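Teaching note: in complex prediction, the entire set of molecules is handled at once rather than each chain in isolation. The prompt given to students was simply: 'Predict the structure of this complex.' The entities are:
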Amino acid sequence: MDISLIFKIASIGILLGILNIILDKADKKEFAYITTLVGVVIVFGMVILLISRLFDNIRTIFQLY
Amino acid sequence: MEVIQIVGLGLVATILIVLLRQSNRSDFALLVSVITGIIIFSMVIDKVKYIVDTLSNLSRSANIEFTYFTTILKIIGIAYIVEFGAQISRDAGEEAIASKIELGGKVIIMVLAMPILLALMDLIIKILP
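The expected output is the structure of the full assembly:
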């Protein structure tokens, strides 16, 4: 399991925060919202794979079918 | 030392989450905490497997009926997974969904435990007269 995913997600979050502030200041509220949405979708795509792997692991270990 | 790895990972993730919360990105904070939980669990998953294998060997040599052991194992797994989900939604401030998840887990555990209860009742009835 690689820990770099945590740093990846956190850095995406911080980057999106900065982008959000800049777009807000430039009076582009709709673009700020769209960037946030796209970031959340991308990161959630990464996370959901890991969640499914965790559930598979638990299912095999505890014999839950 | 795995312990130091796990604790260090937890501390780093906590600092990152606090940083994210301060910049008003609690959605990403939630995702980071989910990933941290998954990574910590996958660090100890080999150990858990070893423990489960040892316990099942022990129960086989002690001649305990095997279905009871698998039932207990299933209950432990359900409890863990329900706790995981409920804790995440409680972290996000959704107390209602967390308690619904816990309710679902409790009901499923009760259903799994029914055969054991029935066996206990049978035993009591056999002993009584």
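Point out the following to students. Chain B has two domains: 1-53, 65-129. Residues 60 and 66 of chain B are 7 Å apart (CA to CA).
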